[in-house]
């Protein structure tokens, strides 16, 4: 009985509250029906006539489209290659055609000017495919004009002289004629394939006596040797960054390791950065070695180093053993 009285008391409303609830329900009902009754009182608007709008759109589409700016996304730059002039297709040489010729071919004035600028800087078109390398030329434009491109073949002499003159005008090279280049005495240093070079003590000039090793590879080998502290075997030269295996296989018969490693890692005094600098130690491994020394004291020999189990494999110890010093 107490539960029944409690529920009645909870759901009991006064007369004023009941009247307010009824009024609120009535207002909600009227608000829901109101949109359906507006047509009874208000006249319907006339149907829209888009004839004039369509006529304006047709006239607007015939106007020249605005050119894309430098900041316009690439996806919208294609329309700027359209020429406002009537397109004509005719045989042309991109090395001699004028701006008006390019516009008659259907290219925009901006694209035509780009081609002229390229030619003014010494650019030449030696074959049809060179024409599509112009940044402003779209693939569809090249496909449309490819059959009409006619470039008279030039002799090697004319091609070289044009190239040399263009580069000399930019101050990039000293101008030389084709005859001077072709008949000038060439001084090549023939590499002695019988020479065997000690890769631990050789300088860059001596390394270049090895077959296939030029100044670039010699510099990289020396830089890698400096990071290691010396080579223990000729096989380590193959680890030089970027060195092709074909070059290494040709060069290895002229290599030997006569001198010992000239710089080792002093495990008991080396800083963390010095440990990380060695090519055979990752940043994680160097940190482990450094922290282990801080916690357990100095290393006495290689066996105490191998007590560090985390982060190392047996092949890692084999590579690192010659480079550790316990001074």
How is this structure best described in words?
By secondary structure, the protein is mainly alpha-helical. Among the domains are: about 1-30, no CATH class; about 195-255, Orthogonal Bundle (DNA polymerase, domain 1), CATH 1.10.150.280; about 265-325. It is about 45% helix and about 0% strand. The radius of gyration is 41 Å and the shape is flat.
Labels describing this entry:
327 residues; two-stranded parallel sheet; single chain; DNA polymerase, domain 1; mainly alpha
Report low-confidence residues grouped into runs of 5 or more: 62-81, 178-186
- Class computed from helices, strands and strand pairing: mainly alpha
Note the total helix count. 15
What is the β-strand count? 4
**How far is it from the N-terminal to the C-terminal residue, by CA?**
95 Å
Task: Give a nutshell description of this structure.
With 327 residues, the chain is mostly helical. It has helices at 2-10, 15-41, 51-61, 99-104, 109-120, 139-145, 156-169, 178-183, 204-207, 215-228, 245-251, 272-277, 283-296, 302-305, 314-320, and strands at residues 197-198, 255-256, 265-266, 324-325. Among the domains are: 2-31, no CATH class; 197-256, Orthogonal Bundle (DNA polymerase, domain 1), CATH 1.10.150.280; 265-325.
How is this fold's topology laid out?
Blueprint: H1 2-10, H2 15-41, H3 51-61, H4 99-104, H5 109-120, H6 139-145, H7 156-169, H8 178-183, E1 197-198, H9 204-207, H10 215-228, H11 245-251, E2 255-256, E3 265-266, H12 272-277, H13 283-296, H14 302-305, H15 314-320, E4 324-325
């Amino acid at each position: 009985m107490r539960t029944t009285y409690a529920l009645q008391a909870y759901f009991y409303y006064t007369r004023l509250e009941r009247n307010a609830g009824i009024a609120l329900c009535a207002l909600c009902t009227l608000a829901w029906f109101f949109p359906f009754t507006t047509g009874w009182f208000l006249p319907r608007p006339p149907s829209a006539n888009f004839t004039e709008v369509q006529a304006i759109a047709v006239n607007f589409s015939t106007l020249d489209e605005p050119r894309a700016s430098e900041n316009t996304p690439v996806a919208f730059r294609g329309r700027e290659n359209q020429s406002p002039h009537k397109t004509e297709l005719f045989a042309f040489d991109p090395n001699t055609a004028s701006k008006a010729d390019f516009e008659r071919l259907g290219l925009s004035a901006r694209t035509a000017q780009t081609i002229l600028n390229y030619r003014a800087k010494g650019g030449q078109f030696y074959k049809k495919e060179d024409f599509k390398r112009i940044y402003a030329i779209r693939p569809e434009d090249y496909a449309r004009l490819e059959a009409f491109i006619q470039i008279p073949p030039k002799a090697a002499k004319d091609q070289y002289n044009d190239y040399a003159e263009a580069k000399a005008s930019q101050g990039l090279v000293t101008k030389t004629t084709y005859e001077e280049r072709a008949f000038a005495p060439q001084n090549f240093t023939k590499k002695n394939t019988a020479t065997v070079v000690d890769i631990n003590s050789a300088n860059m000039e001596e390394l270049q006596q090895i077959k296939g090793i030029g100044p670039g590879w010699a510099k990289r080998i020396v830089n890698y040797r400096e990071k290691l502290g010396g080579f223990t075997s000729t096989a380590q030269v193959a680890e030089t960054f970027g060195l092709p295996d074909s070059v290494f296989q040709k060069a290895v018969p002229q290599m030997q390791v006569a001198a010992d490693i000239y710089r080792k890692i002093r495990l008991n005094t080396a800083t963390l950065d010095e440990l990380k600098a060695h090519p055979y130690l990752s940043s994680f491994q160097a940190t482990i070695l450094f922290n282990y020394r801080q916690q357990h004291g100095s290393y006495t020999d290689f066996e105490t180093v191998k007590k560090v189990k985390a982060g190392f494999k047996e092949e890692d110890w084999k590579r690192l053993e010659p480079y550790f010093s316990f001074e």
